[in-house]
User: What shape does this take?
Amino acid sequence: MSYGAWAKPHESSPHNIESVMVRLDHRWGSQWEVVLEAYDSQAVRTLATSLLQGRNAETVDVLRKRIADALANAPLVDRRLRELPVAGQHLLQVLAINGRPDWPLSALSAMAAAVAPSDDGNVLQVLIEHGFLLPAEQLSGRRRLSIPPSLAVIEQKDPRYFVPPLVLQRARLLETEWSQLTAHQPTRAVVRETDGLDIPLRMAVVWQLVRDSALRLTKRRDLNKRDLARLRSDPLLTAPFIESVSDPPDLSLLIVDWAIVCGLLIEQGSDLLPGTWSQAWGADLALLLAELWKALPDLERWCPDDGWHPSRDDPHPFVSVYPLVLALLAKQPHEAWLHVAEIAAWLAQRHPHWQRPELGQQWIGAVVWGLMFPLRLVHAAPGEDGEWLVRLSSLGRWLIGDRRDLPTTPAPPQTLLVQPNYEILLLRHGLTPTLITEMSRLARWQSLGAACMLRLDADSVYHGLESGMESEAILRFLTRHSMRELPDNVVAAVRTWSNKRERIVVYHDCIVVECATPDDLDEALRRGLIDLKLGDRFGLTRHEDQIDYRQIRLIGRRDFQAAPERCLTVSDDGLEFQVDPARSDLLVELDLQRIAEPVDTRGNGRRYRLTRPLLQRTLTSDWSLAEIDRWLQLRAGAPLSPAARLLALPDHAASFQLRSCWVLFAPDELVADGIMQWPVTRGLIRERLGPTALVLAAEDVPRVRQILEELGQPIPMESLKEPHEPG
Amino acid sequence: MNGSEKSRLPIKIHRRVSLILTEDAPLAEEILAHKKLAHEILGRLADRVLLIRPGRVNAVVDELRRMGQTPRVISAQH
Assistant: This one.
């Protein structure tokens, strides 16, 4: 789940934990009312019994209203919170300290067990019956929700629950007693704090890496071997943190998993693609770091004890460990320095996962020094025996609600240096999430050190332009943040690279307007119906709503992606095609022009005539006779006409014969049949040309005349004509 | 036909068209000469305009980039 719903902080409003929580909980702010509406009557009465105490005689609708009022009534919520069992108070306080309302049931159960080991496990049921934990499932239609009599009967695998916003806010103020760990004294007065940039910078690098080449996922949602190797050896992603006590295992893969849950990378089928930068990337660094911390429990494939492990069957225990560690640190005195091993021991004694003694406690280093320290949530100080001590930083204090003002560090606006070799030196003290985002869009990260290095090239600038930047805006942006004037060659190069992008423009799902004549197209352009001309009769517009229908007479409307229609009519001579403008599409005339020439292309009844040269050229290049037949069948309802097929014959393909002969024309078909059948005459007929026309050899003419005379049917002399001799 | 009918332009609308517009005709020829790209091109609407097979815009853009081109992609949604 992504916490991408941060509003950009308003400059005039002070940052405080309540306003931040309100922003964070925006989604849940209305969801709890939806759940109340969906609860069945039994559930409503259960809630009323616990929350309203003794006002259960009303109708269900009235009770719903009263419960909703109660959950928005701070004094009443405070009273009910104080009446809860200690385990319930502790659990809600852990959630409130972390500022995150929604959790899986398994994590809630583990947290409840850890904060109150003596509890009988009934605390979650109590919180649900108070309406302090509500089901976080998607509700649809009129489906009713019920409260299970026991969590053991829930069939859904690890359902999620959330705490209503006011309950979360008020639970933070509860006075509860927590274990106090031993405070240690640092051996030297050295307090180390990171700048919080290491993880955001690596996220930017992984976003860029995925933008250049998508990562592939296996069916088990693991990364494929090649990508795993690539990520594990990437010099930028695996570079140690600048201010480091102990780096987490599989650092590059931690970054990938974190970027996924923050929406910076998105899964699409078997690909991992670049996602969008959430609004927190446009806000103060502290807000971004808080967002990253809150997203941490959603990491499924990476965990602190064994790094990348995507194929585990059950959720790892750290979903509940992160909030417990922060809560334990939060409940210690402000200046108390703790030993991380003692935090681990405290958790190992209480957390259900660590009931097996063979499980070690090495993970605590990865959680505190590998995650919380680079997120600037904790300070480090040297302790005895070379160990490091920990306490919450000012950002950590702000996150848990102990500080009202956001601990911001003003960043100087001029923090980069563009060099003539196209390298950009970026000083970390001026880096902001916005700057990281913008630089990632237009330049390629080269190194992440105390000063970061990026490089501008045609490809990176192209990506910047594709993300919506304009060349002049890129130059203005670089100038604004640069400590020196931009080198002339860099300015010129950015403009050149930008212009190169205009050489090929790909329009995706646009509108093509087809006019009857070039003059009409000019008129359409003049009236603003199209943005630009595409050839003589076609124009382009990006939005259909740009077309003023009062100015046009719509001849037809075609979806380019729809199946082709029959839209050609063939003339009687079989060689001319008329295009039906209402049903034609953009392709039909393009294809037609491969075999036919335009005869009349003015107006709507556009006509083309098939010519032998065109037909022959097409047949010898890329269209076979069978393909043309198939195409014509689709577009005209019939294959090539016999006349067209005659024109399609290649040179010298047909063997014609020209012969002189005598033709005997019988008076009717019946007589001709008789001559063909009678054995005396049958052998004298060479060929029958038609119903009454019979071919004779010249030498057989006297014999045929004689036979017919003997039959009393003489052939008159005037009918004898010499055959026509070809010139 | 009255005056207002005359002034209304007879046009036809083709929706959801994806196309490539090149700077000049030789560049369009170059694209058509590219075997993989030619397969994705349905026709040449004009000297500088190539119609892309439906659903293949991303493949065309990727292939153009592999060719070393830097196409500007304009989507109707933007």
About this structure: The first strand of chain B starts at residue 9 and ends at 22. The domain at 15-66 of chain B is CATH 3.30.70.1220 (Alpha-Beta Plaits).
